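Worked example 2:
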Amino acid sequence: MTSAIPGVIQWPAFGFVALVIVGRYLLVDQTSLDRLATRALTFGLVCDLLRNNNVQQAIADTLWLFDDAYVINVARQASFGPLLLSIMCLFGMARIAAAHGDDAVGSHRQYRYDAVALIATAVILVAGTPARAHDMLIDEYHGWPAAIVWIAYYSVLAASSLSIVHIMVGELRDGDNTIRENIIYVVVLAYFGILALQSIYLPAQTVAAVLTDSPAKDPTMQSKAISAFVALIVGAAIIAVPLVGAILLRSGWDRPGRYCRKLRPLWRDLTDIYPEVVLERPGADSVSQLHRMTMEIRDCLARLHRYAPEAPEYAPAGSPRDELCDYARRISAAVTAKQSGQLPPARPTERHPQTPQRRDLAAELNQLVELARVWRRVHPTTAPLLTGPHHTR
């Protein structure tokens, strides 16, 4: 079939899908699930390209020794091959997900799934020979060859869809899932449940039409072309989500990266005083960097407490924000004292001026971020006394 979707819509969509594929190959290629998802999208793109009029004509021009119409019809029928391979990739992903991400389960079996798709494609090409000989689409030629084509195609789709439905039902029965996981399972179950029903109904409809000598309901096969194109765009949009996350992570605009930038002025001023607390971690991801910066800030604050002026013992209670500002001013004074070479003041009993302690790490991180925000106002900006590789991060 040749898609009737205008090129002004197709080519930007193909460009978007190609960018997602390249980005995933470069940034999201850690697990078998990642690779199968990218592979499924790649096969889907090849399928839709083979159904594009310009691509079909380019193939015919390249194979100029053969009849143009015959080459174009071969390309049309061959487009089912990448589509079946894409479906087999989705089936392989479902099998791996059911094995709780065990890559060994799907890696050696995927070859078998691909072989099934290739065998079905060979059957489609053989059964489609009469249609190619008459320069017609499969449903235009109709008859038993069309019935064989759709039985070969939809049998693979039905078997894969029913297996995925069975896997999703098993995952939902597990009961040890998060709400997000259950939503994903329900969506996948509904989608492949509909595909399974279509895969049973449509070939049966074709066989019934052949037996009653009725014409095909969609001889131009445009509904199939449009559904494949829409599935390609939706699939690309879905699997682009991890790619966007990977790009944000690489650029430092993910949540841990943003926290690191907020903490950096405070971290830099404190580690200027105590550079020995900095642990170099070249190439560390933003999560590891955030954990390291948090620990280093806490270490510096613990060392600075000897230089900090004591809080008024009978000061009136203020708001948490006032207490945080007061704490930041005392730490700023401690930094200034340490920088000027002053000795820690002698005290009968040393006290550690800390912010109110929280139990969970998320609350502690939020507390440090608030301290860093206040720090910019209470601590004078000065040129760093020490220079080193840690000041550039």
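The longest helix spans residues 179-211. Residues 382-393 have pLDDT under 50 and may be disordered.
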